[in-house]
Amino acid sequence: MRSFAFTRREFLVTTAASSTLVVAPGLVGRAAERKLWSSDPFSLGVASGSPAPDGFVLWTRLAPEPESYDRDSPAGMSGGPRRIAYEIAGDPALKTIVKHGTAVADPHYAYSVHAEIEGLLPGRPYWYRFMSGDAVSPVGRAMTRPALDSAPDGLRFGFVSCANYEHGYFSAYRHLADEEPDVVLFLGDYIYEYVDTRSTNLVRRHSEGVEAENLATYRNRYAQYRLDPDLKRLHASAPALTIWDDHEVQNDYANQASETFDEPAKFLLRRADAYQAFYEHMPLRAFSRPNGAAMRIYDRLRYGNLLEISLLDGRQYRSREACYREPDWGGAHPETNQSCPERLDPSRSMIGAAQEAWLFDGLAESRADWNLIAQDVLMAQLRGVNEQGEATFSTDDWDGYPESRSRLLRHVYDARVRNAVVIGGDIHSFWTNDLKLDFDDPASPAVATEFVGTSVSTHGVPYEVFARALPDNPHVKFFESRRRGYVAVELTRQTMTAKFRAVSDAQDPAANVSTLKTFVVESGKPGAVEG
Ligand code: FE
Ligand code: CA
Questions:
Q1: Ligand nearest to the CA of 461
Q2: Separation of 77 CA from ligand 2 center, angstroms?
Q3: Alpha-carbon distances, residue 72 vs 69, 79, 80, 84, 210 (angstroms)
Q4: Are 274 and 247 in contact (CB under 8 A)?
Q5: In the 3-class helix/strand/coil scheme, how is 290-341 assigned residue by residue?
């Protein structure tokens, strides 16, 4: 749909040819011929998400001038709410329209649309598009979930994290789109708020060259990412489930504590702006609408009796990282040694008491064969050694909250949660891990399996440094930080197969993809084996 991306001047000289624009058949003869737009209002593409057995959320955002923003005229829009039309079809050519209607682009939310569609059939794909005047959006593919009382044979999903726009191109998104999974999980660092002033090998620069820190700059950052053709393609190919990590707001923030030690009240204003921009750009339901600095994203979805997914929020409710001190910003996660007693304080939590209770209840009551816990950061213990020979732990992932992790894994064991699998990102590397009741006891059982996806484009963590720690972490089955990519998962009743898909070069916009490793979890046996 590049042909709609006219500048205003180009449009004036080409309007005579505009009768060649594709017009939705359902709208011919109605308001379709009206020239409402001088440039494509659907420049940011379309998305679907939060699938239900009878529908999903359809998303777009009116942005005729996506890279020009000011508070009074976001992305070239002004005035009150706009009503736009949508069509949903049972076929990719949109020949059989099964549903059509209108949805509101809300100026309070940067003219984004979050249409909650109902009344569709379970467990099947649909195709959709939006229309406004003579402008027609690209066609997207969505998918309903299977009926809750059904027994699906299988499911295909992908998961992705950490797409720094400056560090590389989004070929991983393009190749995942081509696999047309049933659903894609975005596990955080969908945008990066900061501007990289240290790396020399950047392929492109963040909008405005400034750190995003208010509504205008966060919106601009999302718009810049959403203009990327590979990300647009992924959103148009499959419904999304979206959670955040830190860079949607600020590096390493925790709850109301900022990395830069801002006053909590001041930081919460920033968090409110960041959360609002996240809501505006994700295909989320109304229950996720932000309320000041609070926004509910943790959620549970069931695919018949095959799979239950728990989506976690690992940032909004967490305790401050243990023994946190003002970092001399080196791009490294905060780290602490074994002498930090605060780390072991059982009152500290990664997900907060309310979410923890909600998660534990859901896991205990689940009747699904597989139980996926989708969250943002590495869960397995990763014991490093510092120059003094002391054990060290990263305090920003679950190693900073070991009692919180123990409670969760103990609960998985005690409640006999069936086939618990944890997925995550953040650490810019592929991992396959056994999640054990006691990571320091070789005889302790694995109670769950962990797969961590590498970054889509963000530079990897230093390979040698991490590889050196592996002998002290025998529950780690695989580690690779030198490749960028995503994870493609095929689930059946008997097995979960995770393919670690690596792009040839994230700095090459035309990179190809190959499978680096395949791991299989067999039902009833926690821990993956190479497939
Ligand atoms: Fe990241
Ligand atoms: Ca992160």
A1: 1
A2: 32
A3: 8, 9, 11, 21, 20
A4: no
A5: CECCECCCCEEEEECCCEEEEECCCCCCCCCCCCCCCCCCCCCCCEEECCCH
Inter-residue contact 276 to 268 (CB < 8 Å) = no
Cβ within 8 Å of residue 4, ≥6 positions away: 21, 39, 40, 42, 43, 135
Please state the pTM of the whole predicted model: 0.93
Q: Which two tokens stand for residue 247?
A: 């860079």
- What is the Å distance from ligand 1's center to 506 Cα? 15
Q: pLDDT digit of tens for each residue in the chain (531 aa)?
A: 222 232 333 333 333 333 333 444 444 444 444 678 999 999 999 999 999 999 999 999 999 999 877 777 889 999 999 999 999 999 999 999 999 999 999 999 999 999 999 999 999 999 999 999 999 999 999 999 999 999 999 999 999 999 999 999 999 999 999 999 999 999 999 999 999 999 999 999 998 899 999 999 999 999 999 999 999 999 999 999 999 999 999 999 999 999 888 999 999 999 999 999 999 999 999 999 999 999 999 999 999 999 999 999 999 999 999 888 765 544 445 777 777 889 999 999 999 999 999 999 999 999 999 999 999 999 999 999 888 888 899 999 999 999 999 999 999 999 999 999 999 999 999 999 999 999 999 899 999 999 999 999 999 999 999 999 999 999 999 999 999 999 999 999 999 999 999 999 999 999 999 999 999 999 999 999 999
Span from the CA of 458 to the centroid of ligand 1 (angstroms) = 6
- Give phi and psi for 84, each to the nearest 5: -125, 160
Give the closest residue to 436 by CA, choosing from 412, 467, 400: 412
Q: With CA atoms as reference, report the closest residue to 281 among 223, 367, 353, 324.
A: 223
Q: Cα-atom radius of gyration of the chain, to the nearest Å? A: 23
Q: Which residues pair with 497 in a beta bridge?
A: 490, 520
Q: E strand or H helix at 123, and its extent?
A: none
What torsion do the CA atoms of 9, 12, 17, 22 make, to the nearest 10 degrees? 70
Residue ranges near ligand 2 (ion) with Cβ within 5 Å: 189, 245-246, 426
Using alpha carbons only, give the angle 147, 154, 174 rounded to the nearest 5 degrees: 105
Of the listed ligands, the closest to the CA of 164 is 1
Amino acid at 326: E
Ligand 2 midpoint to CA 397 (Å): 9
